[in-house]
Amino acid sequence: MDRNPSPPCSDAEEEEGDAVGNTVYSKHWLFSVLTRLIEVIAPAEPDPAASPEGARTELDEEMENDICKVWDMSMDEDVALFLQEFNAPDIFMGVFAKSKCPRLTEICVGILGNMACFQDICMSISKDENLGQVLLQRLCDSDSPTLLETSRLLLTCLSQPEVANVWVERIRENPSVYDCVCFIMSSSTNVDLLVKVGEVVDKLFDLDEELMLNWIKNGTCQSVGPSVDDSPEELPDFKIVPCILEAAKQVRSDNPEGLDVYMHILQLLTTVDEGIQAIVQAPDGGKETWSLLYDLVCQELCQPDDPPIIVQEQKTVLASILSVLSAMFASQTEQEYTRMRKNMPLIGSLIRILQYMEGCGKRAVDNSKESKQEETGRTEINEEDFHLKILKDICCELLSNMLQELTKENTLEGLHQGHLNEQTCSCAFQNLLPLYFASVESFLEVLREADQTLADNLEKRFPSLKVHT
Hints:
By secondary structure, the chain is mainly alpha-helical. Among the domains are: 132 residues, Leucine-rich Repeat Variant, CATH 1.25.10; 110 residues, no CATH class. It has 24 helices and 4 strands. It has a two-stranded antiparallel ribbon. A two-stranded antiparallel sheet has the order 3-4. The chain is elongated, with a radius of gyration of 28 Å. The N terminus is likely disordered.
């Protein structure tokens, strides 16, 4: 059976006044489905299909088909408004409170998620404190489809500026959300769920720095409220960074967009000192984070056999990764994993990214070519160029810091491995000068000890360097 079959054509046209808004859907039919839904959770007579506790654990096929049709129909604003007028959210509250059927819970949350796509309904749902708390409790559910629909609903609400703060405050005051989200990120293998939960976390951190700081500092055991069997469940002592890393590892191969989301979450953490410290002061000193990001840059993204245009596709995830690596490198230069003898491939990858940006199109990234001249005289920057400019800035900052740390031995190794040569060094200098003149000058002095001829050739190509030597 399809999880969400499309609704069939309705006979509403045959009954004047029965149509829902401008649709062909029947008010009477919708009313009958919702009435039957009430009977499912509060039967007048004992149900032979019920569990020993008295609640049905499975839907019969007809009811599932009909309620799935309502799920599809609820994407229409007229239907969503009709459901709102019929107090469907209150009915769904009863489902969440009484139902032992995961499929029914999933569908009801899914319908609410569709309804929340419309601003007025979203505001009504969001301002209902009881419903809000019950929905957050769904994050403790053990059913992955229900968790996915709950996350989708939360993301929809958080994306509505009029109600986003309501949900941020509600989540901030509900410590169980942190534990449940961390549990999902650290233990789920459902890629779709991990991506959606990651989008929720990303949105939360982007909206509210205070909440992000609280989650960074969090780590005490919490009793997270009722689990599926209504018994309190205590979750482990979660730390946010290991949970993010575990989720990123799960999605990296199957979902590039999901990887982008989790890398951006890490980047948001590095915008505050506490976040950087949470990464580099982990028990392993940040080694796991560095290793994952290093592998992504050096082994998976923007590789030598990729066409230069690949940098366009990967620009946002690369910017996030390099931003985190840059923050870690600047704060943990004494860590073994930041030793330059181990990071020559990373320098090679940074230069390759700069080369690809130069070759990916006719646009000059550093000049951010004008796409339109406004009446005020201000330049409107092409969005594509803007993101490439950000990537270039981050890439150059990290490269300049790493070049300053190179020794003669490191440089010789880079020359031997092919990461450093006249072409790559010229590309690096072209992008780093004049802003990072000191770094280039420092590297040139070391390079002169390792390869005098190469250093002389570079001085000829960049006369400004020769003047200062």
